[in-house]
Design goal:
Layout lengths: L1 E3 L5 E2 L6 E7 L20 E5 L5 H7 L4 E3 L19 E5 L3 E5 L4 E5 L5 E5 L18 E8 L3 E6 L6 H9 L16 E7 L4 E6 L14 H5 L5 E9 L14 H15 L8 E6 L6 H13 L20 E6 L8 H14 L6 H13 L1
Keywords: GTP-binding, Nucleotide-binding, Nucleus, Ribosome biogenesis
Subcellular location: Nucleus, Nucleolus
Pfam family, one: GTP1_OBG
């Protein structure tokens, strides 16, 4: 039996997934030339992971966004070796990538109490520096959050991802009959009768060209990097963003989504994936679903229907394909059970060695 808990719902109403900060290590202390004393080293600036911290809390608590470590103590007669300056710690949530001003990754925070040195303190005055202290390192850093969830919903705008999330988790995302209702990630959790919990993330809708940062672009794609499984959600009737854009069938939608993932980061195709075909309550949905199943069983036989530029090198192999209706509830229980089954079957897929092996297989196949 599967049941859901609304108590486990988190909504990112004012979600912040990137912060730009200034960090400066402390200056070293003065040396003592007459007695050969050495000044203390300046304090360092660290980014430290805390599971209960969010980037919004960090921004609100430190609106100046400046973090400076303490200076090292000067050498003196009573203490020839000056003490080290006080370190400065920047509390950050788990799942953060720390980058420099040029976008180079300094390090990542993957679990509680992980630490990354972002600005080193200056050396204290000593013989080699003519007993003069050195200034601490200063730099601009970016804290970039990638949402962590068991399952990430992948789909075009208005495919019904938010409605589906509300059905499987009792979360309450914004839902409306127009594209781009979801502008910030929403996270809900399914709780099973044996107290097993599975987190499901609804991410901003993808559009063609997302790998080039069109639409929500990288703000969407970066979040699925940390999800264990992908759940594709497509409208059985297809998708058309506007009257100025081409209409895409459900099959073309799946092919396009696969292509966007491939162009952004090929490794995403190594993640186990499920497919939820939504809006099965619409007229003619049964016949369209049968056509879609025929196409997915032999996708290469139907790729000629797609433009060459939208055809991926490899199509997705879905673990389960479930017809659902977020409106009537059709297929929802089956979907929950398939999510649980797929996660259990691929429990080792979070292992780095496993992902590297899968990527190698993908590249050589």
């Amino acid at each position: 039996m599967v049941h859901c808990s609304c108590l486990l719902f988190r909504k990112f109403g004012n979600f912040v997934d990137n912060l730009r900060l200034f960090a400066k290590g402390g200056s070293g202390g003065m040396g003592y030339p007459r007695l050969g004393g050495e000044g203390g080293k300046g304090g360092d600036v660290w980014v430290v992971a805390h599971t209960k911290m969010t980037l919004k809390q960090l921004r609100d608590k430190y609106p100046q966004k400046r973090f400076v470590a303490g200076a090292g103590a000067n050498s003196r007669v009573s203490a020839l070796k000056g003490s080290k300056g006080k370190d400065c710690e920047i509390p950050a949530p788990v799942g953060i990538s720390v980058k420099d001003e040029n976008g180079k990754i300094i390090g990542e925070l993957n679990k509680e109490e992980d630490r990354i040195l972002v600005a080193e303190g200056g050396l204290g005055g000593k013989l080699l520096t003519n007993f003069l202290p050195l200034k601490g390192q200063k730099r601009i850093i970016h804290l970039d959050l990638k949402l962590t969830a068991d399952v990430g919903l992948v789909g075009f705008p208005n495919a019904g991802k938010s409605s589906l999330l509300s059905r499987v988790s009792h979360a309450k995302p914004a839902i409306a009959d127009y594209a781009f209702t979801t502008l910030k990630p929403q996270l809900g959790k399914i709780m099973y009768s044996d107290y097993k919990q599975i987190s499901v993330a609804d991410l901003p809708g993808l559009i063609e060209g997302a790998h080039m940062n069109k639409g929500m672009g990288h703000k969407f794609l970066k979040h699925i990097e940390r999800t264990r499984h992908l759940l594709f959600v497509v409208d059985i009737s297809g998708f058309q963003l506007s009257s100025q854009t081409l209409y895409r069938t459900a099959f073309e939608t799946i092919i396009l989504l696969t292509k966007e993932l491939e162009l952004y980061k090929e490794e995403l195709q190594t993640k186990p994936a499920l497919l939820a075909v939504n809006k099965m309550d619409l007229p003619g949905a049964r016949d369209k679903f049968q056509d879609l199943m025929n196409q997915l069983q032999n996708p290469k036989d139907f790729l000629h229907l797609c433009e060459r530029s939208m055809i991926p090198e490899r199509t997705m192999a879905f673990q389960h394909i479930i017809p659902v209706s977020a409106v009537t509830g059709e297929g929802i229980e089956e979907l929950k059970n398939c999510i649980r089954k797929s996660l259990d079957e691929h429990a080792d897929q979070g292992n780095d060695a496993y992902r590297k092996k899968q990527l190698l297989n993908l590249q050589t196949s």
